Protein 1
Amino acid sequence: MAVAAGRPTARTEAENPLSEGLERLPPPPTALVIFGATGDLARRKLLPALYNLAHDGALPERFFLIGIARKEKAHEDYRAECEQAIRRFSRRKPDDDVLKALLEDVKYVPGTFDEDSVYAELHRLLDEFEEQASEPLNRAFYLATDPSFFGVIVDELGRSKLAQHMHAEVRVIIEKPFGTSLEEARELNRRVLAVFDETQVYRIDHYLGKETVQNMMAFRFANGMFEPLWNRNFIDYVQITAAEDIGIESRASYYDKSGALRDLIQNHMLQLLCHVTMEPPVSFTAEEVRNEKVKVLQAIPEPTPEEIPEMAVRAQYAKGHAGGEDVPGYLEEEGVPPDSITETYAALRLEVDNWRWAGVPFYLRTGKRLARKLTEVAVTLKPVPHLAFSQAGSLGVQPNQLVLTIQPNEGVSLSLVAKIPGTRMAIRPVNMEFLYGTSFLSQSPEAYERLITDAMRGDATLFTRNDEVEAQWRICDPIVRFWSSTPEEMANYESGSQGPEEAERLLREGHRWRAI
Amino acid sequence: MPRSDAVWTAQGTTPDAIEAALRELLVQRHAENERYVPARVLNMIAFVDREWTGEIANRLRAVGRYSPSRLLVLAYEPRRERLDARVTIVSEGEPDAGEFALLRETVVVELGDRHLDDLLTIADPLVVTDLPTLLWSPHGHYDIVEVLLALSQAVLIDSIDEPIWRDAIDRACKLSERAYVVDLAWLRSTPWRERVAASFDPPRHRPELRAIERVTVRHHPASTVSGMLLAGWLASRLGWQPGSLVARGDELLGRAHASRQDVALRLQSAPALQVRGLEGLTLATASGRELSLDRGPGGLRARARDPRGVERSWTIPGASRGEGGILGEGIRQALLRDPTYVPAVKAAQAMLP
C-alpha cells in the first residue's frame, strides 16, 4: 500500500532486533528452481555461486534446489553433475562436507518447458519440500534457458498456478537478453506481467552485480568534490568502453544472432551510462534508483534513420594477431555463416537531453578481438580557458580526465597536469591513481552470488525493471533495424587492433578515442 | 604465493633510520616496476614477546588477503639494550601485463625494557599517517596496550585467551570505553548470530522472539566467554534484564527478565568439543517451539520441534573459517563498526557470577 509523502512510517514489532549489526542476514527459506539446469550458465555460474554461498553460510536456513532440463536423468545423476560443475568452476576448492550438505536437497525434473507434466512434477516436489521443511518456502524460478523459452515457461508457471503462493513469496529471475528487439521485449513483458506482478520479476543484468558498478553511485553521491563538476558546464565528453581481446570462442550460434550492440550496449553499457548520468535518488531503494535510471534513458532521443550513419558505427573483426598468435577473422570462425552481417564491434554517440547533460556527447564502444580486455568510463573535463604560462618544453597538455576502470584493475584515475621538475615552467600530464585492491581487504563477491542472494531476499535494486528494459530497446532498436536494412555498410578491423577507423567519424572536433 | 622482495636489516638503529629505509625500499620497488603499488588500508601494531615472534608471524601468514598493509611488530625482550629492526616488503607476485601487484610492508623492531618509556616515539613514525591503526597484544602486556592506544583506533583482543574469563569480560568492557574493540571471541559467534537472527526473520516467526523462555548455550570448556557473549547478545538485542548466573557443576545457570516472562539461561560446558568457541545452542519459546543449532559436518546441524512435538532436523551448509580465517576477519572488522558488541559484553558483565 502506498504511503502518503511525509507521513512517518510506523515502527512495527515486526522489525527483527537480532539483525542489527550483522553484515548479512541469510535469506528466508527458499526453493530455487533452475530452468535450463544443465546449460552452460547453470554449470559455470549458478551452481558455483550457490556452492560459494553455502560455503560462506549465506544460503537460507532451509534451501532446496530443483533443476529442470530436457534430458532424462535420475536425481542422483543430476546431483553428480552439479558436483562436477562445482568442482570445476567454483572460485574456491569445495569442502566435501559442505558440498554434500548442499546437494542433499537437490532434485531434477526432466522434460520440455511446454510439457504440463513437468509443471505437475515441479508442483509435487515443491509441496514435498514444504512438507519436509514444515513451513511455507519462498519460490524463486530462475530462467537460465535459451531466451526463446522465457515466454513459454512463464505462461506454464501461470497456468499451473505456481506463480502465486498464499503464504510465501514467489519470484521469477530472468536472464538476459530480455528480447532481441523492442517489440519482443514488450511482448515478453506483456506475457511475464500477465502472470507475475512487476515486484515479483527480477531481470538479470549481471553487470549490475559487479562491485565497481555499484560503487559508481557511492563515488558520485558520497564525494562532495565531484558533484559540482558533474554536468555540461564542466564535462566535455564521456567515453564508455567495453573491449574484449578474445573472439567469439564457442558461442557462434548465440553471438551471430545477437551482435555487439545487442550483446553489450543494449544492456550493460546503457546501464553504465545510467550510473554516470542519473540524478541522485531520494533513497537507495530499488524503486527510487530505477526511477532515476529510467529518466536518463527517456532523455536519450530515439535515433532516426537519417542520424544513424552519423552516430553509429559497426564492424567485424578481420584476421590478425592476438596474444602473440595469428587469429582468424569473424567470418572464418567455426559456426559463423560466411555471409554473416553480425557486427563484432559497435560504437555509438548518444546525447542525454536534459538540464544536466544537454550537449555533452556520450561515446559508447564495444568489440571483440580488440587490443586488450578493458571496461572503463572516461569523463573528460573541458580544458582550462587560458594557460598563463608558455607551453614551450611541455608534453601533451590535455584536459583533466577522470577514468573509472571496471576491469581489469578496478579503480579511479585522475589525470592532472604538473610541472616538470627543472628551471623552466614546463608541464606534462600525470596520473593520480586509486586502485580498489590497495584500499580494501575484502574480495568482491562474484556478481551471481550477490544477485541470487538479492533475488532470494527480495531486493530488486540491482535488477532491471520492465520500463527500463523497454527504454533501452527504444534506443537500440532503430539502429538494429537500420543495420539490418543496410548490410553492405559493414566495416572491418584487424584483430588485436584499436577497432575500425570508421569509429573516428563519431567524434566531435577535438575529441578522441582513448587507447584501448 | 607471496614472495619476499626487499629486505633491510639494521642493528642498533633508530625509528628515523627505519622509516627512511621503508621509503627507500618502496621507491626502489616502484622504480623496478611501476605496477608495484603499496596497499594502503590499515596499519597493525602487534606488541609480542620476542620468543613468540615466529608463532605470531605464522598466525598472521594464515590471514591471506586480510593482511594489514603495514604491520609493525614490536618484539619485546626485557633485557634487550639495542634497537634492532628488519623491514620486509612483500609483493603478492609479479604483476601481469596491465595489472598491478600489491606490496605489503612488515617492520619488526626488537626492543627491551629500556625502550618502553619512549615506545610511542618508536612506533609513531613507523605507521602510515592517515590510515586506521589496529593494535594487538596477544601476550597480555596490558600496560603497554594503554600506552599504544594513543596511536590506535581499534584494538584486537581474544577474550577466550584470558586466563580468567570473568576478567576477560571486565577488561573488554573497560577497553571498549576507550577504543573500538574487535574481539575474536565475538567473531567466532557470528555464524551463530546470523542463523538465530535469520530463523526468526520471517515475519511469521518474529513475534516468537518475545516468547523465548529458555536459552541453553553449549561451549568449549575454555570458551565460557563465548557462551556469555552469545547470551549477552540475545539479552541486549531483545531487551532482557539479566541477573547474575550461578555456577552449578560445569554449568552456569540464571534468569533474565523479559517483558512477558522470565528467560531461563543455561551455559553448558561441552568437553568433547575439539575447537574453541561454541558447540551449539537451543532456544525454546513459550508456545512450545524449540530450535537447536549444533556443529556438524559440513555446517550446522539444525533441529526444530514444533508446538505439537513434531521434530525435524537438517544441515545448514557452511564451512569453518578456521583460526586463520577468524584472525583475518578480526583485521577486516577493524575497518567496520558493529554497534552490538558493547551492549552484548555489558549484558555479559551483568551476568557474571
Protein 2
Amino acid sequence: MSKEIDISIRYLENVLSTNNSTLILSSTAALLEAVSKNCNTTDVELKRSLISLLRIIDKKCFLNQEVDVNQIKFSLQEVGKLSVKCPKSSQKAAPDVKKKPNAEFRDMEPIPNPDEENIDNLLNQLNLKKVPSFAPAFPDIKDDSDDENGVTTKQKEEERAEQHGQKVCEEEVVKLPDGREIRMKKTKTVNVKQTSKHVTISTKSANMPEVSRTFMNARRGFDEDEEEENTNFGSSNLRSDPFERFRSMLKDKDEKTEAVEGESAEPGTPGSSSKSKTIERTSEVSQKVSEKKEKDGRLLAEHEASKLDKSNLFAKQVDTYQGTSLIDRKGEGSYEESTLVRNALPRDFQVTTPPRMHVVEYMKMFGDDKKNNENEYLKGTTISSYVRLNSNLTTHEEQFKKKIQFEFSTAGTSSTTIDLDNLSDLLNQTDFNCLRPPNKFLEEDTPRIVELPKAIDWQREPTSVPPQKDLLLEHDAVDYVIFREKEGKVLEVRGGPKDALIVYATQSTHSSLLYQEAFLITFRTFISALELVNKLIKRYLYMSLANDSQSESIARHTFSVIVRIIDEVTQYELDFDLITSVTSFVYRLIHDGNFTYSRILRTRLLDRIKDSFDIQTVLGTNLCKPKKPHDLFDFKSADIACQLTYIDSQLYHRIESAELLWWSQEQNEKKSKNLVNFTEQFNNLSFWVRTLIITQSTQKERERHMMKFVKIMKHLREMCNFNSYLAILSAIMSTPLARLEWGKNIKDALKVCLYCSVTLENLNFRNTLPSWTPHNRIKTIERCCKPQSPHVFHTCNGIILQDLTFVHAGNPDTIPTDRCNGAKNMINFLKRWNQFAILDSIRKLKKWNYDIKKNDIIVQYFNGFKDCVDEERTWQLSHQIKPSNRKPKTQS
Amino acid sequence: MREFKVVVLGSGGVGKSALTVQFVSSTFIEKYDPTIEDFYRKEIEVDGQPSVLEILDTAGTEQFSSMRDLYIKNGQGFVVVYSITSQQTFHDIRNMKEQIVRVKGSENVPILLVGNKCDLSHQRQVRSEEGLALAESWSCPFTECSAKNNQNVNVTFAEIVREMNYVQSRSRQSKTCCSLM
C-alpha cells in the first residue's frame, strides 16, 4: 500500500474516536486525495468502497445523523484493502485522462516547446512591475518674512537604489528500471544592483533669477553565479548578456531547450523521470527624496519622503515523464509585492505606535479556461492590502501589499478578468423599445405543479428522457434569450425564460463574463439555490456523457458555475436537501472516475459548512469578571474606536449579498441573520451611548462622557468607520440628549462632528443629515475605494438596503407579456442588472478589511452593549433633568 | 417655490417604497433606478400653488431604529403608513404620533395616516373605521390608498402639503399673536 494512503487511513481511524466532525471531514478529504493520487481510479470496486465510505461519513458529519462508527471503520478497511489491490499502474497514462485523439497527438510531439511555455508564460504575466519614479508633493514653503533681500536656497535630493536577484533551480530525477536514480541539479543566480543619485540646488535672491545646479551620479553592477551537480548532459554555455537575460525571462528558454534536448538524447530509457524547475526572484527598489529650504543659512523647512518597493516571486513546476512523453504537469507558486511609502520630517522618525488602518482585499478566482484540454486548470487567489499609518500631521506611512498564489496543472494558463466598465453604460439605458425578441419561444413550465424542489440523488442514472424539450440539455440557449438591440447591434441580456438564462450563464460561447457574474449574484431573485444546483448538475451530467469537445467544454463551465454557487451559498440555504444533492453528485463524480472534480466540490462544501458563525466569538470573551468594574475612562478613545471597528468589520464581513437581496424583498430575519446581527449592533451601540451619557447624575459627568464619545468619533472617522460613527452621532443627536443644555465646548464639538459627516459624504443613510444632496453614490463609493484613497467607506448598508428596496418596488419581476409577443414568465433581467450594480459596489467594499486584534478587556467592558435603558426611559431621564414645556396630557 | 421635506414612516413591508415610487414617477414604470440624482424630489401643485416635495423614505432601513430620531428631526411633514392587510403593522405605528411630537417638541406637526394596499380588500385585517378612529385621536387626516393601482396616491401627497401649509400659517399667526401681546 502506498504510504500516503496508509497514513491517511490510520489518521482517520484515530480521528473517528474524537467525534470531531471538522477533523473527520478534513482527514477524509486527505484520504480521498491520497487514493486518487496513488491508486488506479478506474477500478470499480475501489470506487464503490470509497463512495460508501463517503456516504456514511457525510451522513454523520454533513447531515448530523446517527451512524454506527464501526460501519465507518469497516468501510475504511475495505478502502484500504482495495487500494492495495489497485495501485496506480505505472505503464498506463494517468487514469484521469480520458483517451482522446488530442492526447495521442500530444504524445508524439517533441516535448520541449509547448510545455515549457507554461511556467514562463505565467511568470511573464506576473513579471516584475516597473517601479515608477517617486515624486512626492511637498507643501510649498511660503517665505513669511518681509525681507526681500535674503538668499534662498532650495536643495532637492533624489536617491534611487535597485537590487534584483534571481535564482533558477532545475532538477531532474530519472528513475531507471533497475531502481537506480540519476539526479541532476542546476542552480543559477543573478544579482543586479543599480544606484543613482540626483541633487538639485536652486538659489534665489531678491534681484536675481533662480539658478539651479544639478548633480547626478549613477552606478550599476551585476554578478552571476552558476552551479551544477551531477550533470549528465549538456554544456552550460551562457548566451548573451546575463543582465539582458534577467530582464526578460523568456530569453532563458534557449538554454533550457538545450537542456531538454540533452535529456532526450537518451531516448531508450523506459523508466520514468521527473523534472522540476524552481524560480525565485526578489527585487527591491528604494527611493528617497528630500528637500531642504534655507534662507540666509537659516533653515526654513525640511522634508523627506521615502518609498520602498519589494517583490518576491516563487514558482515551481514539476513535470513527470514516461519515457519521453509528458504525462503530468503540476505547478504552484506565489508572487508578492509590497510598497512602503513614508513621509516624514527627518529626526522625528521614531513615533509611538500610530493608529493604523488596515484594509485587505481578498479575491478568489477559480480557473476558467476555454481551451479544450483535458484536466487542465489554473487556480489562483490574490490578496492585496493597503495600510496607512498615521501618527500626526507630518508623518504618515502607507503600505501596499499584493499577494498572488496560484497552482496549475497540465497545459493551461489562461486567466480571466471581468470587465466591469461596461456595466455603468449598460445601466444607462431606459426603455423597452429596443428589445430583440427571442428567435424561439418555449412554453415555460408555468406553475402547473407547484412543488418544492427536493434533493435529487445524482448517483442514479437519469431514468427517463423528459417528454418536453429541455433547454438544460441544449448547447446554446442564445435563441431563447431576449437581448436589447440598438441600431441592429445586439447588446446585453434583457431577459428570457429561467432555463434559458441558466444555460446562457454556463455556455462557453456567446456569453459574457459580466453576465455570468450578474447571474451568480442575483439568481436568487428568481430561482432557489437548490433548484439551480439541481438543474446545473443535470446539465453537467448530460454534457459530460457526450463525446464531442463542445459538450465537454460546456460541462466544465457548468461545473465551475456549480463550484461558484457552493462557494457562496449561505448558511440558510445549506439545508438537508442541498447537502444531499451535492454529496450525491460527488459520489457520482467518483463513480465516473473524476476524482479531481469530486475533491474540489467536496472541499468547497466542507468549507461552507464549517463556516458557521457564532456572534459570541466577536462580542463575547472568556475573561473572568474584573474585581473592580471598568469604566469608559479606563480606556483610550483610540482603543475603544479600534474595538468598535473590529466588531463592525467582523459582523459586516459575514453579510452575504444574498441576504441583502432577500431583505429588500421579504425582510425575513431568519434568512438575513447576519444582516440583522449587524443592524442590531448598530442600534445597541447607539442606545448604549445614550444610556451612558444620560444616566450620569451631574451635568459635569454628562459633559465629560459626551466629550469622550466625541473623541471616539474622531478616531472612528480617521479609520473611516462611518458605521459606528453614525451610531454614536445618532445617539448624541437624539432628541432626549440634544434638548438638554450643553456647554459651549460640547456644542462646538458637535457642530464639527456634524460638519464632518456632511463633508465626508456620509454614504450610510440618505437624507438624515441636514443639507444632504443626493449623489450618484455607487460612483462615489467606487471612487473612494480605490486603494490609493485613504477614505475607505467601511459600510454603507443603509443606502444599499434602501436602493435595493426601491429597485425591487419599482421594477417588475417579469417582462410584461405585451413586450415579448405574449410570452409569459420572461424574467426581467434588467432588474437584476440594477441589483447587481448595487451589490457589486458592496462586494468591492467587502474586500477591504481592518487588521485589528480583539482586545478582550475592552470587549468585555462593552458587555455586548446590553447595559442600556430603552427609549422610553431615556426620555423620562431627559425630562427629569430638564422638564418639558409641553403639557404631558397627550399620552396615548 | 416652496420646498417641503416629507418623511414616510411605517413598518417594513407596508409598501412605503412602492408608494414613493408611484408618486415620484407617476406611472408604475418598467425601469426604475433610485441611484440617480433627484429621484426623490417631485414638483406638485396643490390648490393652485406649486411646491417641491423632497421625500425621505425610510424603506429598507426600518430596522435601524436608532436612526428614526434623525429622520424625524429632519422632516417637516409625516406620512405614517400601515398595511390594511396586516394588523401588526397597524399596531406598530400606534405610538408614532407621540414619537414625532416628542422629537419635534411641538403639538402642531403635519401628519397624515395612510392605510396602504387597499387593492387587497379580500385580505383586509384592519377595518377603515379603526384607521379613522386612530386618525381622529391624532387629529389628522386619514386615507386608504393602493400604490399598486395608483389609487389615492397623489391625493395623499397633496393632502400632506395642505397640512404643512396649514400648520405653517398657523404657527406664523401664533407667533405674530405672541409678539402683539
